[in-house]
Design goal:
The protein is 34% helix and 23% strand. It is α/β, with parallel strands linked by helices and 607 residues long. Helix 4 crosses helix 5, helix 7 runs parallel beside helix 13 and helix 14 packs parallel to helix 18. The radius of gyration is 25 Å and the shape is globular. The termini are close together. Bound molecules: 6-O-phosphono-alpha-D-glucopyranose. The site of 6-O-phosphono-alpha-D-glucopyranose has 15 residues, from helix 9.
Length: 607
């Protein structure tokens, strides 16, 4: 959560910082602020609410002249979203300003100690101890002050610091929170995420835990925690600035839904060569795979649901039992995991705190680890033994869409790849590979088949509660469909395994309660059809999602959504698309802030 940005260069910093913060706003958006250094003095402006308020407050940055500065957009953890708690935080002598993403776990004891030393606290945040520690330890050498300060901190941080005694310099430090340096021409940057940098430079340096950086407009120097210089390589970001723009769409979410055929193609196409699934990045040998007794999948939110959806393909094609565990649960569950476990970790951002902790826990128990990640160079990508990137491009909307479908696609590829190594029959293999190659087209067909969704949204948007039901993959997709609906439209939506309805949930069905029934697997469709009839007899309004040639359902359901006829083993990536669109249009009908739903943040870097 929270986004930080820093700039030093030839032009005024404030407009650059504001533009960068707009790009980082998906990380948190309850308050924001910037600090700019000018003539050896630091000016700060902070607001509650969105970056737009900060632009208005500073007249698009014109009120804070100066070519060096730092900025922050906040998702409150310690202290309410007020101006006092917004970053940057200033030292008592006004010489230092700090922005921070992460959590300082020992802040209470540090605060007591600093108070006893006479430091005055203006906020309720954990962050404020950092700026007072820097003031305490600064004796004309910021390196020393940073090393001594970071030595005192427990927890996670990406820090940006300016000091009025050091004009033209910005400092950045990292421990377990994302931080990237941007290397420009006569200007340099730091940011939580490349999206804030890419309009200025595509040359970046990934800072590692325990490192800090000193940036001037002409130099980028990196040091370890002992203040020894570290040589780092410059990486080139593969995608361009348009990838992080709305490109004519009203919302990022709609753009990202529409990008799914292309994103899934980018995920799948390079990994199928001469009719074979190829993972150049995997080091797991067939022999090692034969030793695997269980696959454990862990993740949070939609990434977890991506695992739920792909589980059926993984089990059927590999014959290895698959266990799903939420990362926040797994990390504390004393799990039965050893070297015969393949742990698959799924994370769009690669920075989710619980996912990182679960990965570390399972690694320590000897599991072989494989990460499915979108953000290159992220913490999860670096920690896992094997990393497979989803290549979805930047995802900005808080509610994931193409992140999810590309994760499921990678898991399908892995199912076929591992299955092949464990003895999948050649004929079946060839058919499966063809089916995978058709997925991008099938997603496009799904979008085209469901032009009625804006009208359906008009019918369903004022419902009190919606229920999603299905079996197996249909149930797994229901979970994600219900999550999409609740996170962006704020309607109460719950997913249930269709067979479980009778065990309680059916008591909630009354006249006109919408039930969204997923029936995309012909083999078990009859069973879900019975559940549809049961809820209809109690007054429910049924919106069924099914494959196109399914005639049986037409007479039973009130409304229909379609996917093209497809092998149910790989149907999750098409099934979810109409549900994403339904959630989008319902949220739009209800006037919700679709890209930035209330209380949420895209990258959940706190526990
Ligand atoms: C947040 C996001 C979700 C995402 C989840 C896990 O809740 O809003 O879209 O699925 O975090 O994030 P990750 O980056 O690990 O996939």
């Amino acid at each position: 959560m929270c986004g930080i940005v820093g700039f030093t260069g030839m032009q005024n910093a404030a407009p650059v910082l504001l533009e960068g913060l707009k790009k980082l706003e998906y990380r948190g958006y309850d308050s924001a602020g910037i600090a700019v250094m000018n003539n050896e003095a630091i000016s700060v402006s902070k607001v509650t609410g969105r970056i737009a308020n900060l632009c208005a407050r500073t007249r698009d940055g014109a009120d804070l002249p100066g070519t060096t500065g730092i900025g922050h957009t906040r998702w409150a953890t310690h202290g309410a979203p007020t101006e006092e708690n917004a970053h940057p935080h200033l030292s008592n002598d006004g010489r230092f300003a700090v922005v921070h993403n992460g959590i300082i776990e020992n802040y209470l004891s540090l605060r007591d100690e600093l108070r006893q030393d006479g430091y005055r606290f203006e906020s309720e945040t954990d962050t404020e101890v950092i700026v007072h520690l820097i003031e305490l330890y600064y004796r004309g050498d910021m390196h020393e002050a940073l090393v001594r300060t970071t030595n005192r901190l427990s927890g996670s941080y990406a820090l940006g610091v300016i000091c009025s005694d050091e004009p033209g310099k910005i400092y950045a430090a990292r421990e377990a929170s994302p931080l990237i340096l941007g290397v420009g021409i006569r200007e340099n940057f730091f940011a939580s995420d490349v999206t804030a940098l890419v309009s200025h430079t595509r040359n970046v340096i990934y800072l590692e835990d325990g490192e800090f950086a000193e940036l001037t407009k002409d130099s980028v120097r990196i040091f370890d925690c002992l203040n020894q210089t570290v040589e780092k390589k410059i990486s080139r970001i593969a995608w361009n600035v348009q990838a992080a723009e709305k490109g004519g769409f009203e919302h990022f979410m709609m753009k990202e839904i529409m990008e799914q055929p292309g994103a899934v193609k980018a995920t799948i196409a390079p990994r199928i060569r001469d009719g074979r699934v190829v993972f150049d990045e995997l080091t797991l040998t067939a022999e090692e795979l034969r030793e695997i007794r269980q696959i454990v999948i862990t993740a949070c939110g939609s990434a977890y649901y991506a695992g739920c959806a792909a589980r059926y393909a993984l089990e059927r094609l590999t014959h290895i039992p698959v266990v799903l565990e939420l990362a926040s649960e797994l990390r504390y569950s004393d799990p039965l995991i050893d070297e015969h476990t393949l742990l698959i970790v799924i994370s769009q951002s690669g920075e989710t705190a619980d996912t990182i902790a679960a990965l570390k826990e399972c690694k320590a128990r000897g599991a072989r680890t494989l990460a499915v990640v979108n953000v290159v160079g992220s913490t999860v990508a670096k920690l896992a033994d094997n990393t497979v990137y989803t290549w979805a491009g930047p995802e900005i909307a808080v509610a994931t869409t193409k992140g999810y479908t590309t994760q499921v696609s990678v898991l399908y590829l892995l199912a076929v790849y591992i299955g092949d190594r464990l003895g999948l029959l050649e004929n079946e293999y060839k058919t499966l590979v063809k089916d995978l190659q058709h997925l991008p087209r099938r997603i496009q067909q799904t979008i085209d088949l469901n032009a009625s969704i804006p009208d359906l949204a008009k019918k369903y948007h004022s419902s009190k509660a919606l229920f999603f039901i299905g079996r197996n993959t249909d149930y797994a997709v229901s979970l994600e469909g219900a999550l999409k609906m609740k996170e962006i439209s704020y309607l109460h939506s719950e997913a249930y395994a269709a067979g479980e309805l009778k065990h309680g949930t059916i008591a909630l069905i009354e006249e006109h309660t919408p039930v969204i029934a997923l029936c995309c697997n012909p083999a078990i469709m009859g069973k879900t059809l019975s559940n549809i009839v049961e809820v209809k007899s109690r007054g429910a309004e049924v919106l069924a999602l099914t494959f196109r040639s399914n005639q049986k359902i037409i007479s039973v359901a009130d409304d229909l959504l379609f996917i093209p006829d497809t092998d149910p083993l790989f149907s999750a990536v098409t099934e979810i698309v109409p549900l994403q669109l339904l959630a989008y249009y319902v949220a739009k009908e209800n006037g919700c802030d679709i890209d930035k739903p209330k209380n949420l943040a895209k990258s959940v870097t706190v526990e």
